[in-house]
Design brief:
Strand content: 15-25%
Oligomer: single chain
Strand order of the largest sheet: 3-2-4-1-5-6-7
Largest sheet: 7 strands, parallel
Number of helices: 8
Bound molecules: guanosine-5'-triphosphate, magnesium ion
Shape: globular
Radius of gyration: 19 Å
Order of helices and strands: HEHEHEHEEHHEHEH
Helix content: 25-40%
């Protein structure tokens, strides 16, 4: 039986392949630039995490807390179903689902297409809820002003070093499901230390949408980013 890994199963000689993924990312960056130019006045926040870390629940709660003073919209990506958009609309948010058709991340061209189908007049903050995945979304600039990564207390505190690019490219790490910290082996200090070794500028806020911890700080952070975007 051949026990070699598939990547080593070459006959004699090898082929040096062009990395076409790099070209794709270059094309993505052009579209991301176009999105930035299209949306000069509103704050765009790209929310990333593993599946189920609490992105949609956080946005529902953000809508309840900030919905009266700010105009909020969400483009939410999932491989299938419109379930998250339905949840967000029920919370009073202007939401549109991007169904990626199995793709594990959102690309800038998907955002550009979606912008033709959502009315952003008067919008202050546009959230993009990315597909649940700590890997691929990190490589795709979506024209955002800030990237926020959730790391749930149930995922283990070793993730920032194992998936460094996501934390390197984020402005803020939210340690979500903080209400479960007494029951799971997760050290906020250890996760924050590892994350800041990857990205010394990363801000860290533990949150619980269930109990309300950290949500005032999260809302203040958003308002500060919005003021910064508008030159305040
Ligand atoms: N204990 C606890 N559970 C939470 C918290 N926030 C979210 N959850 C639960 O976590 C589960 C997943 O939450 P979602 O908001 O759907 O997570 P998501 O990141 O949007 O999931 P995907 O879009 O599928 O990647 C749900 O059962 C939520 O009720 C929290 O602060 N504490
Ligand atoms: Mg979701």
């Amino acid at each position: 039986m051949n026990t070699k890994p598939k990547s080593n199963q070459m006959p004699v000689g090898s082929v040096q392949c062009d990395n076409t993924t790099l070209n794709l990312l270059k094309a993505n960056d052009f579209v991301a630039k176009a999105i930035r130019e299209k949306l000069p006045h509103l704050l765009v926040v790209n929310i990333c995490s593993s599946p189920g870390s609490g992105k949609t629940t956080l946005l529902q709660e953000t809508g309840r807390r900030l919905g009266k003073e700010l105009n909020l919209a969400v483009l939410v990506g999932d491989p299938e179903t419109e379930r998250d958009a339905v949840r967000l609309k029920e919370a009073g948010l202007n939401a549109l689902q991007i169904v990626t058709g199995g793709m594990c991340h959102i690309e800038a061209q998907m955002i550009l297409q979606a912008l033709d189908h959502i009315n952003l007049e008067g919008t202050d903050i546009l959230f993009i809820e990315n597909v649940g995945n700590l890997l691929c979304p990190s490589a795709f600039d979506l024209g955002e002003d800030a990237r926020v990564t959730l790391l749930a207390s149930t995922e283990g505190d070793d993730k920032p070093k194992k998936y460094p690019r996501m934390f390197l490219t984020s402005e803020l790490m939210l340690v979500s499901k903080a209400d479960l910290l007494p029951y799971v082996p997760f050290s906020v200090e250890a996760a924050a230390k590892d994350a800041r070794e990857v990205n010394p500028d990363l801000e860290v806020i533990p949150i619980s949408t269930l109990k309300g911890d950290g949500l005032d700080e999260w809302c203040e952070w958003l308002k500060k980013q919005l003021a910064k975007k508008r030159g305040g």
